């Protein structure tokens, strides 16, 4: 009886809360979001008129066909060639079949096991590939640009059915190409039905075709999946169609590039086209067909070409609209304060579908129970968190960032009084990630830092399909875990006090282990920050230390965390270019990898540019009285101005360019990549003295730039909120618009969102609404957008980091501004369009579209900028309200005068905070009478004529209300 009672108590106290959390996660995740396939590019491709066709094979005999199986696993390294070692194993079989026939008398049947005998590779990859190959005698296919093929998969019990196609060419350009990124495509097929597959190959070398191949990756079987599978093939045909646009900056003819989700109410709104015959455009109400705005098309010219631009920023009425210019029209889009919420829901759906270790309806069952991490004699089952990329890998860094982004979004939704249902959904997903972070620690500094996985496993530990990794004591991983656990404490303390307390306990422990290991990394006075191919595990370590320290300081108030955060900031600010270089275009504000400034900081395909700006802006908010405050602030100001300046090169898209490269850097890359690297750099925009601005990154092996522009956008948004700079935040939002259709291809690249979205490379998990690819790439050494129809790694591969950065960015810029405060009387918010909003309470709270407002109360007025997604506290009481206008002017001898015109009532204090300029007096106290303007002056001397300076004029100690002045 006592044992039974104890068991019941154990279940109630320990297991029931866990079951409830799991039930909450399952309930809020629900069924995956269904795809409107008719809105997809795939649907459009299948309905293209065929201009000419030629039958290649009707599968009525096998005389030109063979089967193959390769084994040995795939070895992928950013500095090595991927090799698939053929051990002459022949397992796949082919034959003719009448069981499933699309047309004619026969189809070709391939049968294969899902894996080979023996253990899988230690890398976590699969056992190899099985496939069929059609042999050709050097045929010239250049008169055709599409392959049509019919495939019937028979994979009993499988949720996802993937197959790869590949061409072999022996002409001037050889195929398969290095790394298989040209002349190859990946398919996601519907199981147990005929799939019509079309693949446009206008970009592919095809002057001397010797082979066409279809192959399946031998990745094993999960419980309920068959260990032997079949594919039926029929009707292989060459076709000629009008091709999709796949390269160049100009917008696809007879299309309009616009944000397919729409635009926030107060945001700048524009769309782009090329070669339109019309002189005007209209904005049409999609509900009743009424024309609500007619304007002339404008022209824009930049380094990338000439464009037609439709600017309709004055449209601020929420609704559904269509753009029309002559015969060219868009699909309906929204103008709404919460226009990005649907994309947030889609990305949450993506993460839900990527969950590991639980059943996800239609995607997989409970998976990877035999995936373990070992530490001496100890072992942890590490399923959980999320699968990452087109495979099933699990990386601590990725899971930490996803979880941190989700908690940040939840916290900001709560602070802005956002959608409660969305908040609950975000929090459930964040808790799922936190569970993995907590459970993968051995409690002594050693953690699972992640592993590569492409295998479906049977869940039974001890047999040969298991994946086992070894724990590591890595300071970077422990700092990242500490940051996640500390923000989790902050968000959960009023929701789940027990879990919050445990998270904080773990955060302190992980911090201690990370600090103990830090001296082993700091070998010189400079901490390594990033590199050209982004494979260093300590990327942006100083920033991660600062973020963890501030989150712990906010949780505990312990001054040790403040001291460590402040000490690490010098590694960021000291690595920034602040002196104008002797170039034709003397840019400042960009970063080097260290304070030695001997190597420019680059990221390729996965960026961490957000880290230093998030760290520095967090420092500014946490410690506004610190002596180094203005150094942190000015670093953010200079970097954001650098991004805004370089973005002018990609007008009118406003795409953030990659970064600056030196023409000697190729000497430091692997020999196999030297010539390609050198050519890519030289194809950038010359800045002088051997330096070039690349609009896209210089690639190594991995390509796709969403992982670089979204972190840059986060950095820009963080700096923009610190500076209250609407231009920075709007430019950050333009990166979201680029991804959702305001690009040369006029296509949404988020699967299932908008229209004309393309199939993505996701062979392990299938197509998922909300999935984002690594991003648009360039072809060869060029520096122009390239988006071929083929679906291949890495540019069209679904990875977790673009989706993470999407949510993280929208945690800052999504939704209206939330303004609350106190007043003695009625408060008026007057926008540039003369819209007046009145609040009659002593305490007011209101949501406003972004923009510049005159805020008036009790006969006094001040000008304020409210940014999208921002939360603001205003004190509009008579004795507190102060309006400032700031101007600067140069004087003889290089002196600078800052004039501040102020209006208000009573006694106020005006202070200048400066970097790069010295003021003998930094504070003025003024007594103000009703409506009478008073001007105060500050005179200073720049430290150097070669360095820009930054000044913030602060009223009454409230730096958030400060006005910035800069000088070059």
From TrEMBL:
Location of the Glycoside hydrolase family domain: 342-757
Presence of keyword Protease: no
Pfam families per record: CelD_N (PF02927), Glyco_hydro_9 (PF00759)
Keyword ATP-binding among record annotations: no
Secretion signal span: 1-23
Keywords, sorted A to Z: Carbohydrate metabolism, Glycosidase, Hydrolase, Polysaccharide degradation, Signal
Gene3D superfamilies listed in its UniProt record: 1.50.10.10, Immunoglobulins (2.60.40.10)
Similarity comment: Belongs to the glycosyl hydrolase 9 (cellulase E) family.
Annotated protein name in UniProt: Cellulase-like Ig domain-containing protein
């Amino acid at each position: 009886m006592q044992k039974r009672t104890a068991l019941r108590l154990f279940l109630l106290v320990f297991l029931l809360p866990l079951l409830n959390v799991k039930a909450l996660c399952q309930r809020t995740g629900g069924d995956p979001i269904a795809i409107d396939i008719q809105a997809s590019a795939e649907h459009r491709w299948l309905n293209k008129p065929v201009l000419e066709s030629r039958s290649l094979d009707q599968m009525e005999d096998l005389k030109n066909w063979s089967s193959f199986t390769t084994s040995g696993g795939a070895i992928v390294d950013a500095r090595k060639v991927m090799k698939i070692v053929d051990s002459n194993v022949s397992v796949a079989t082919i034959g003719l079949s009448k069981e499933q026939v699309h047309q004619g008398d026969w189809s070709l049947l391939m049968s294969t096991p899902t894996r080979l005998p023996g253990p899988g590779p230690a890398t976590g990859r699969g056992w190899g590939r099985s496939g069929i190959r059609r042999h050709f005698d050097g045929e010239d296919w250049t008169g055709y640009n599409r392959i049509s093929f019919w495939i019937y998969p028979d994979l009993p019990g499988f949720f996802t059915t993937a197959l790869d196609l590949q061409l072999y060419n022996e002409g001037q350009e050889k195929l398969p190409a290095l790394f298989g990124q040209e002349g190859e495509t990946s398919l996601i097929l519907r199981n147990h039905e005929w799939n019509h597959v079309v693949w446009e190959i206008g970009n592919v070398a095809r002057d001397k075709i010797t082979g066409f191949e279809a192959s399946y990756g031998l990745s094993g079987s999960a419980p309920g999946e068959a260990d032997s599978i079949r594919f039926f093939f029929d009707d292989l045909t060459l076709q000629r169609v009008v091709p999709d646009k796949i390269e160049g900056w100009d917008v696809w003819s007879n299309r309009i590039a616009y944000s397919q989700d729409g635009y926030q109410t107060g945001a700048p709104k524009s769309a782009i086209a090329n070669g339109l015959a019309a002189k005007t455009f209209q904005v049409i109400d999609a509900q009743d067909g009424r024309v609500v705005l007619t304007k002339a098309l404008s022209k824009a010219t930049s380094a990338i070409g000439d464009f037609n631009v439709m600017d309709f920023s004055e449209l601020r009425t929420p609704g559904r609209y269509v753009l029309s210019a002559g015969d060219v029209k868009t699909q309906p889009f929204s103008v709404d304060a919460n226009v990005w919420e649907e994309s947030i829901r889609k990305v949450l759906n993506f993460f839900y579908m990527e969950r590991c270790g639980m059943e996800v309806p239609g995607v997989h069952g409970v998976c990877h129970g035999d995936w373990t991490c070992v530490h001496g004699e100890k072992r942890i089952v590490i399923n959980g968190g999320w699968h990452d990329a087109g495979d099933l890998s699990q990386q601590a860094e990725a899971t930490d960032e996803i979880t941190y982004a989700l908690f940040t979004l939840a916290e900001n939704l709560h602070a802005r009084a956002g959608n409660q249902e969305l908040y609950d959904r975000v929090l459930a997903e964040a808790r799922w990630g936190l569970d993995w972070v907590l459970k993968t620690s051995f409690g002594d500094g050693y953690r699972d830092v992640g592993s590569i996985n492409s295998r479906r496993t049977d869940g039974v530990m001890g047999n040969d399909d298991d994946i086992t990794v070894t724990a590591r004591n890595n300071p970077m991983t422990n700092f990242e875990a500490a940051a996640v656990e500390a923000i989790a404490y902050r968000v959960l303390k009023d929701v789940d006090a027990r879990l919050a307390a445990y998270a904080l306990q773990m955060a302190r422990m992980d911090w201690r282990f990370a600090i103990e290991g830090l001296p082993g990394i700091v070998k010189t006075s400079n901490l390594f920050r990033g590199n050209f191919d982004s494979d260093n595990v300590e990327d942006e370590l100083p920033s991660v230390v600062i973020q963890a320290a501030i989150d712990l300081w906010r949780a505990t108030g312990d001054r040790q965390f403040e001291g460590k955060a402040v000490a690490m900031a010098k590694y960021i600010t000291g690595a920034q270019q602040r002196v104008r270089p002797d170039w034709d275009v003397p840019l400042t504000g960009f970063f080097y990898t260290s304070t030695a400034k001997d190597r420019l900081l680059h990221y390729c395909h996965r960026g961490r540019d957000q880290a230093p700006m998030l760290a520095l802006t967090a420092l500014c908010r946490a410690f506004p009285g610190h002596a180094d405050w203005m150094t942190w602030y000015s670093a953010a100001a200079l970097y954001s101005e650098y991004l805004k300046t370089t973005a002018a090169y990609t007008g009118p898209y406003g795409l953030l360019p990659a970064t600056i490269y030196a023409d000697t850097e190729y000497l430091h890359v692997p020999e196999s990549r030297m010539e390609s690297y050198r050519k890519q750099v030289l194809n950038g925009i010359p800045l002088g003295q051997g330096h070039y601005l690349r609009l896209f990154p210089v690639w190594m092996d991995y390509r796709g730039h969403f992982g670089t522009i979204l972190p840059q956008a986060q950095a820009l948004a963080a700096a923009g909120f610190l500076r209250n700079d609407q231009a920075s935040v709007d430019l950050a939002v333009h990166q979201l618009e680029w991804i959702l259709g305001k690009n040369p291809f006029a296509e949404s690249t988020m699967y299932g969102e908008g229209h004309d979205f393309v199939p993505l490379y996701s062979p392990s998990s299938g197509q998922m609404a909300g999935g984002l690819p690594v991003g648009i790439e360039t072809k060869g050494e060029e520096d122009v957008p390239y988006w071929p129809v083929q679906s291949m790694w890495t540019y069209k591969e679904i990875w977790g980091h673009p989706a993470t950065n999407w949510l993280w960015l929208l945690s800052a810029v999504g939704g209206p501004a939330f303004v609350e405060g106190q007043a003695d009387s009625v408060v008026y918010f007057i926008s540039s369009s003369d819209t007046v909003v009145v609040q009659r309470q002593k305490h007011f709270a209101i949501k406003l579209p972004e923009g510049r407002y005159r805020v008036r109360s009790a006969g006094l007025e001040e000008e304020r900028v409210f940014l999208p997604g921002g939360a603001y506290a205003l004190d509009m009481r008579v004795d507190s309200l102060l309006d400032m206008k700031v101007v600067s002017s140069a004087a003889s001898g290089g002196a600078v005068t800052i004039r501040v015109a102020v209006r208000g009532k009573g006694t106020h204090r005006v202070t200048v905070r400066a970097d790069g300029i010295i003021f003998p007096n930094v504070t003025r106290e003024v007594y103000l009478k009703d409506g009478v303007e008073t001007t105060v002056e500050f005179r200073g001397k720049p430290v150097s004529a070669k360095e820009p300076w930054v000044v913030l004029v602060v009223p009454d100690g409230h730096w958030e209300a400060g006005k910035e002045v800069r000088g070059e």
